[in-house]
UniProtKB/TrEMBL annotation:
Residues 11-294 form the DUS-like FMN-binding domain. SUPFAM superfamilies: FMN-linked oxidoreductases. Its EC number is 1.3.1.-. The lineage of its organism: Bacteria, Pseudomonadati, Campylobacterota, Epsilonproteobacteria, Campylobacterales. FMN binds at residues 13-15, 67, 138, 166, 220-221. This is tRNA-dihydrouridine synthase.
Amino acid sequence: MIDFKANPLFLAPMAGFTDPPFRSVVKQFGADVTISEMISSNALVYESQKSLKMLEKTSFETPYIVQIAGGDEDILKKAVLILNELDFIDGIDFNCGCPVNKVVKQCAGSALLEDLELFKRLVGVIKTHNKKQFTSVKFRLGFNEKYPEKMAKICEELGVDFISIHGRTRKQLYSGSADYNSIAKAKKSVKIPVIANGDINAQNAKEVLKITACEGLMIGRASVGNPWIFYEIKEGKSVDKALKKRIVLTHFEEMIKHYKAMGVSIFRKHLHEYSKGHKDSSAFRDMINRIDDVNLMQTKIEEFF
């Protein structure tokens, strides 16, 4: 289902952005694997209806992986058992990289990199109970220092199918540059597939693969307002204006299908990104902030792009 010999491109989970409409767009234009927004295992177990809505996938998404986060073994097990009942999921990814304070304070995300015994137990819980095809783990280079080989080896010993490594520590948040050499060291220490993540764009993608010797790449922030990045990496050429317009309109159509009328206002943040670098983009953003009508929004998108 995932051909690691072909250097697959993954869409990284991003809260507020990698919803079903966005995932369907990148899947149609070059992404090989899509992952849900990060789902709290607590929310999945105790507020299941709201969280189950977030888990929905589109017809384009195969394989489709759901990412969960958490720091409690029992809750994590219950969350995995809930996901096991959903036929449309192909894998479960465990988030050990989120650097946000509210996640770290719950002893989840990158907080687990400070306690590798707990990290090992929690990854073991997911691997033991997951009935899906893939069990994967996403983590950073470390909490304050860099020791990605330690996490990589733990994952390999537990039978994890592949890992994704963001080339920063938790301390760095999103500052500085991703350290591809540290990802390369982790890759060298294990035999399971490793996916490189952090600061990857169409210009440096081949170089990152060369430096890290990883099987694939995971792209997050660089795809926002630029979902054609997957196409550009694969084809080795830029997307023309006509295709960009088609992609923006496809994204808008998917938003309306998924969110109905609410899709208009939710799509504004994407249009703010899409319009960057265009002539009169400031006036365009100001105008669309006041539009709530689906047909009018579509007309303005067609005129601007």
